[in-house]
Every structure is written in C-alpha cells, then in structure tokens.
User: Which sequence fits this backbone?
C-alpha cells in the first residue's frame, strides 16, 4: 500500500520468516554459528532457544537455505506428533517409504539410508522447530534415533529449536540421558537500542534495494525500541503501523507522533511494560483509586480506630505517678507550681517581642509531669536554676520577650492641684 510512496520495492516489515531479511546481530550470529558447528560435530544434540518473536525461525530458515549440497535435512515443522508419526515424517523428508505402521520397519529403512549416506560422504540432520511442544515420549524416541551410529560418529544429527520452556522440559527426570547428550546450547535474546535501529534500517535497505535507509527519525527509533522491548516481531508490527499512519498524513518521514498512534492501535498485543524515568510518580488511575479507598476508610470509622490507641496511650501516660525528681521540683502532685498572676491585670499583660508566634502569652504545657531534674543541694543558691518554669526559654528570647518600659503601664506624676494637698 505505502511501498511506492516511500520508494520501496517490497513490504519491509512482514511477519513471515523471510531469510532475505535476516539481521545478524551478535546474538543471532552466535546462534547461526552454533547451528553450523553442530553439523561438523557428530557427538550429540544442538539446542537453540529464544524468547517469543526473537527470530528463531528466521535464523533456522537461513541455516537450511545455506546448507551445503552434501547435507540432507529433515525439517519437522509440526511437533505435536506421536513417536510413530515422527518416524513417518522423518522418513518422508528423506524420501523413504513412510506408509508403514511398524516402528521396526521404519527404523530399519532409516538406518539403511543413513549408512548409504555415510558411505557417500553425506551428512543427515533432523531439525525440529517449536520443540517445546514435544512430548516426553517423543523426545525420548529422538534420543533412541541418535543411537544409530558407527564406531566413530553419529549417523544422524538432531537440532532442537524452541522457546525457553524447552530448557525447563529438558530438566525432567525422564530426560536425563537426552539432556546429557546436548553438547551445544545457545539462547537468543531481544535486541538492544542500537541493534533495533540497525535492524529497522537493514530491512528498509533490503526492501528498497539500497535506496532508502533513513526513513524513521531518531526519536521514532528510540520510541520503537522502548515500546517493543527489542523483540523483532513487535518491532515489525510497530514499524508497519507507523508507516501506515505517516502515509495517511502524507509525511515522508516517520516521526514520533506516528509511532505513538501505531502503539495505540496495537495496544491489545501484550507488549513489554515501559519503564518510567520517574518511579515516584503514580499514574492518575492509581492515585484516584487510592483517594477513593482513603475516603471509604475514613467514612467507615477507620480514622477513629486509628486514633484510639494513641489517645489511650496519652491517657495512660498522664495518669502515671510522677517520678521523685518531679515531686522535688514541683508541688505535692509532681506538677510545677502555677505561675503567679500579674498584678497589672489585663491591661498590663506584656505584648511580646514582635517575633512570629510570640504574643507574650505563656507556652502551652505538655501532657505529663515535668522532666527537668531537681537542683543539686551542693550547688550554690546563686547558680541554682529556678524550678518554677518547667520550660525555660533561651536567654536571648527571654530578654527580648521581657516587658520593657514602653510595654508597662505608664503612671502619671502627682502634681499639686491646690495648696492643701496633692492629687494624682
């Protein structure tokens, strides 16, 4: 649809495993090297695993299409087979009679064929794709086929390719002998950010025959890697939808808005979770749900139940007997003596020093007895602290808060009003 608009000859982001579009990253190149090494070594099995959509089948198709003429391969695509059906499939792939229902006849025909191939200098290999779906009895039968050998080498090589569940399946107690015969193992992981950008440019290069490579902007490539997690199949899906979105808007370059629209369209696919750069930020939906839960908790009396233990503890502390030190410093009940009321009354109350929070009023008393230690009897009376105030203020603040002359009540001098007396 959009190939001619962007100057392409073929659709670059098909989901089919086309060997022409194989991108050999470091992981895929190592997997291909293990497959080729398994042909030269006839000592056992080869096991290649990889996550879903990482390109295992594409690597395998490239490996099969690049085999030498002296190699004969039996490619098993459908692994949900019985042991008899597996033998029939292998014989049919090698061009042998496969209509018999006798395992002995099928194995004898296969053994004779492998011996002829060995005499002609040829190599036979059985490749099983999606091997994680094989049953335990089928895997055990594959191990028995590997017993077809001479005194120096194996007559049949076996390659197992599957998802990571295959590694777990091989740990089954009944498959101990098969697991020990696997000499080459490799796991294909997702692409990193640089490999994802190179993967997209490689497919564009192949689809345009070297004419188009810089079709996606750097921000778009970074967003594709972040949204897909580096899985090639998901990269193909996002790139295809992004190119459709850019084509609909007649944009020659696929930018970040097109990738975002493509991601919203394929959001039903279980894509990898994007990591946010601010872990302390809570999404709006979670914050709203937390607010509703908090309101429901308060409405059902959860706040009162939470405050109840604190109130009980404060009451218990207030009702305890004061320590002896508090009795010495205070009165009979251990509380400090009450402050003497000022003779100046309401008008003579000091106004304070003007600091924030200081209105000349006494500080609020704490709940419970005073914790100030009593004065030592050996200390001179001039150096003893006054026990009247349980919460003495700093000297600087006390000096600033002390009433000055301007704060005191001004008394008018007595002046003589007559020769007989004085009046105020």
Assistant:
């Amino acid at each position: 649809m959009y190939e001619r608009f962007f100057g392409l000859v073929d659709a670059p982001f098909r989901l089919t495993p086309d060997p022409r579009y194989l991108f050999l990253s470091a992981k895929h190149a190592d997997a291909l090297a293990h497959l080729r090494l398994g042909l030269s070594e006839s000592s056992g099995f080869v096991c290649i695993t990889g996550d879903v959509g990482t390109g295992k089948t594409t690597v395998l198709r490239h490996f099969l299409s690049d085999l030498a003429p002296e190699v004969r391969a039996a490619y098993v695509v459908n692994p949900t087979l019985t042991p008899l059906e597996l033998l029939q499939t292998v014989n049919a792939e090698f061009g042998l009679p496969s209509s018999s229902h006798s395992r002995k006849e099928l194995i004898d025909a296969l053994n004779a064929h492998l011996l002829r191939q060995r005499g002609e200098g040829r190599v036979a290999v059985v490749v099983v794709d999606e091997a994680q779906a094989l049953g335990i009895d089928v895997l055990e039968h594959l191990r028995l086929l590997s017993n077809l050998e001479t005194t120096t080498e194996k007559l049949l090589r076996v390659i197992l390719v599957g998802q990571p569940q295959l590694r777990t399946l091989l740990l089954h107690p009944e498959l101990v002998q098969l697991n020990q015969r696997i000499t080459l193992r490799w796991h294909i992981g997702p692409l990193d950010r640089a490999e994802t950008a190179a993967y997209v440019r490689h497919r564009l290069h192949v689809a345009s025959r070297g004419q188009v490579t810089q079709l996606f902007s750097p921000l778009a490539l970074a967003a594709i890697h972040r949204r897909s997690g580096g899985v090639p199949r998901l990269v193909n899906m996002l790139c295809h939808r992004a190119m459709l979105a850019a084509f609909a808007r007649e944009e020659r370059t696929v930018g970040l808005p097109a990738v975002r629209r493509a991601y919203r369209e394929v959001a039903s696919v279980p894509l990898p979770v994007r990591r946010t750069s601010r872990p302390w930020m809570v999404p709006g939906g979670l914050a709203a749900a937390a607010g509703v839960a908090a309101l429901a908790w308060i409405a059902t009396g959860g706040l009162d139940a939470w405050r109840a233990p604190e109130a009980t503890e404060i009451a218990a502390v207030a009702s305890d007997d004061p320590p002896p030190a508090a009795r010495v410093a205070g009165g009979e009940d251990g509380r400090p003596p009450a402050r003497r009321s000022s003779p100046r009354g309401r008008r003579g109350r000091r106004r304070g020093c003007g600091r924030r929070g200081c209105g000349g009023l006494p500080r609020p008393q704490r709940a419970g007895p005073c914790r100030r230690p009593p004065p030592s009897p050996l200390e001179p009376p001039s150096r003893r602290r006054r026990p009247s105030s349980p919460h003495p203020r700093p000297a600087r603040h006390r000096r600033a808060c002390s009433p000055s002359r301007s704060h005191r009540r001004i008394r008018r001098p007595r002046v003589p009003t007559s020769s007989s007396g004085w009046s105020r």
